[in-house]
Amino acid sequence: MAERAREQAELLLDALATMGRGLDLETTLNEISATAARLVGARYAALGVLGPDGRIARFLTVGLTPDQVRDIGPYPTGHGILGELIRHPAPLRLHDLTQHPASVGFPPNHPPMRVFLGAPLRVHGAAFGNLYLTEKEGGGDFTEDDQRLLEALAAGASVAIENADLYDEARLRERAAQANDEISRQVLTGSTPGDVLNLVAKHARRVAGADLAVISVPEPESRRLVVQAASGPDTDRLVGTMLPPDGTFASVVIGSGRPMFSAAAAADERAQLSFDLRHELGPFAVLPLGEQGSTRGVLAVGRYLGGAPFSAVVVEALEGFAAQAAVALELAEHRVDVERLAVLRDRDRIARDLHDLAIQRLYATGLSLHTLSRGLGGEGAERVERAVDEIDETIAMIRTTIHRLQPGGPGDRRVGLRSRVITEVDTAAGPLGFAPRLRFDGPVDSSVPPDVGDHVVAVVREGLSNVARHAHARTVSVRLTVTDTVALVVTDDGAGVPEGVAFSGLRNLARRATELGGSLSIGPGPANGTRLEWRVPLDGA
Prior knowledge:
Layout: H1 2-21, H2 25-40, E1 42-50, E2 56-62, H3 66-72, H4 80-87, E3 92-94, E4 116-123, E5 126-136, H5 144-188, H6 193-208, E6 212-218, E7 225-231, E8 241-242, H7 249-256, E9 260-262, E10 281-288, E11 298-304, H8 312-374, H9 378-405, H10 417-432, E12 437-441, H11 444-447, H12 450-471, E13 476-482, E14 485-492, H13 504-515, E15 519-524, E16 530-537
Parallel strand pairs: 12-13
Antiparallel strand pairs: 1-2, 1-5, 3-4, 4-5, 6-7, 6-11, 8-12, 9-10, 10-11, 13-14, 14-16, 15-16
Helix pairs in contact: 1-2, 1-5, 2-5, 5-6, 5-8, 6-8, 8-9, 10-12, 12-13
């Protein structure tokens, strides 16, 4: 017994010394769990870290294999005996935890556990988490000496966690400051909003230790949010995606100007992003770009399911990045306004010059020719009068040009193709029962001629109508890509197109493509659904 006590004391001292030198929080937490198990001879050990809501946000285990962890399923959140230490933060030692009034049993595939020893961890004077140990090696109960050793370890571990936490916080603030400096330089040197937003998304993800960062801004005409920048694995494909207009974190934040957070985004429908991810999201934060009443977009940052919630210092850093992005967008708006004002001034000057100089000189020339024709006769007079008529026509053309140069002319009121497609997609949400996913790629408004745009809108309308009437789909995606061709792809996960059935609407779509030198193809989509691709060249339009 004396030898065992001496070994335990040495192990405790070594562990405290090791933990005291450690500055990485993740390593420190794992070291605490493993040391606790060795110290009291427990077969299983766990460290439950509490989240802001007072429930278990992270659960680090010792003694369970990866296969066992997978078979057991989601980690506990604080019910039963584990919650007893949360509700009553004091050491707890039990002969049979299943007989305790707070016990709620074990999930399927969980190994049997009876004897139990637990102790709370406090950091900065507040509850941080709890140590849980079960199943004494060699059998028997945990002793009072085991409890005192665990309490001593918990006290030393609390100091080690506090040191590691402070070090992590200092490093995070340093990285955030460096990132903000780089972003500020990009903003002040006049980089494009796209470049600045990409930089903000990259730094926001890295500093927050997140798996995904997405920046979305309102589409100018429809005000629906479109992804402008994204950072994370396989996120390049997300840029250009339109977010649902209502019922999401992003839509709420853009309207209220206040941030929103979720500890488990996968279970919250408002966290939908309108695109598929390889992993489900857990902790999720959506912050406004700008002040309430002048929000210019949203920054959404997420960790995969099972990740730790965002700490207060991480949220503070994200707020700084969101402010930087808002400044970049505001400066871009000012630059656009300045450029637009310069264009309007040039147009006004040109209009005045045309009216005061060109028209007056043409008018004077016409009068002179008309006076000259009076002294002429026959064919010469007729030719002069025809020249006078042509001058009058030229004056009328210049007046029309002057009218178009004035602000608010017909050229300023044309509705873009993006906005028209968005309107069709929003309209289709009623018959479908859900909002289709929408993505744009390329210069949709500037490169597609009006007549081709009319065809595109008709194809979107007919394609979504066919899905609503025949597909019985649960999801639909629309993607419009403009390069040297216009490619419209409508994909659903419905029942597919029955063999031998030829819908008149599909014949119309094929005819529209043929008229423009393009093609229509229909084939299987995801989950036995349908994929419709309508493609026409721009050079033949």
